[in-house]
Amino acid sequence: MNTFSQIYEKIEQYSTIIFHRHTSPDPDALGSQAGLARSLRLQFPEKRILCAGENDEGDLEWINQMDQVKSSDYQGALVITTDTANTARIANKLYSQGDFLIKIDHHPDVEPYADLSYVDDEAPAASQIVADFIIEKHLPLTKEVAYPLYAGIVGDTGRFMYPETSKHTFFVAAKLAQTGININEIARNISDVTFAQAKLQAEVLEHMKVDPSGAAYAILTQEKLSKLGVDSEEASCTVSTPGRIKDILAWNVFVEKSDGTFRVHYRSKGPIINGLAAKHNGGGHALASGANAKNLVEVEQIFAELVQVTKEYQKSHE
Ligand code: AMP
């Protein structure tokens, strides 16, 4: 792994820096991207600093909005990805046209694709790593910098609940809060749902299937989504819902896409599930991963594998 100083040296060398993050962005993808871009804009007003995506921010536009980028912007540019483990998931493929590539991430380093990398898979959020970078390098930490970073940390720690949350996370969160950001507004923006989304959560609770091992799954078909007027991105609000039940240890939420395939969400309170996701064109963290399923046959297979891993986990913890 490279150091913050090596990354900072590269940043100093380039006059154009373009930030990328993963597709279907969550608060941490957008927050880590925006936080570093905004801080560097303040530190280096003479540099051209852009945030690239694919017009895919959905209802997370309150965290950051993308800049328009074109192929010519990438000539001689430094490209920095945040929160993105593999090239297939980098939003906007123009990233590959830059001069030098840096990866800042907190997923297991399954594809070391960059020229320089800072990857800490024990960090609960890429936004925490970015905040550490800003603090260590004494870069500007204003309200506009802290706001997206705090959103990223709240998002990826499940409001400071998931196991990677540490005392250091609270130290960083306190530093960000000291800038005067409205932490209540951020927490509300992340946790509030529309009435239609709440009904979809109820649908998950009512119709999910629970195996005696503690594995559970719910399928959200296009028919259900359109009945409630919720799109597949907005359906992400249901991903944590099964885990609120005490006896559920690991679960899948399958969201049907308009082409009939399924986006697969894996979540767990103990059984390791990123190896399972990797078998289905996916990946992610030990306890939170994503994948894809071609059809209902693959959906059934994915859940059978989850039951197996959950049973093994139960056995080893008897
Ligand atoms: P999600 O269920 O989409 O919220 O994703 C949970 C975690 O898995 C996040 O850290 C994602 O970056 C990661 N992830 C989701 N989908 C994929 C995928 N197809 N390939 C690799 N990682 C993924």
What attributes does this structure have?
318 residues, alpha/beta, six-stranded mixed β-sheet, five-stranded parallel β-sheet, 17% strand, binds adenosine monophosphate
Question: Can you offer a commentary on this structure?
Answer:
- The chain contains ten helices and eleven strands.
- It has 318 residues and is an alpha/beta fold.
- The strands form two sheets. Strands 6-7-8-9-11-10 form a six-stranded mixed β-sheet, sandwiched between helices. Strands 2-1-3-4-5 form a five-stranded parallel β-sheet, covered by helices on one side.
- It is globular and about 60 Å long.
- The mean pLDDT is 97.
- It binds adenosine monophosphate.
- The site of adenosine monophosphate has 17 residues, from strand 10 and strand 11.
Bound molecules: adenosine monophosphate
Strand order of the largest sheet: 6-7-8-9-11-10
What is the arithmetic mean of pLDDT? 97
Quickly count the helices: 10
- Helical coverage, percent range: 25-40%
* Overall morphology: globular
Main pleated sheet = 6 strands, mixed
- List SSEs in N-to-C order: HEHEEEEHHHHHEEHEEHEEH
Strand residue percentage: 15-25%
Number of strands: 11
Which value, in Å, is the CA radius of gyration? 20 Å
Low-confidence stretches: none
First-last Cα distance? 38 Å
**Helix-strand category:** alpha/beta
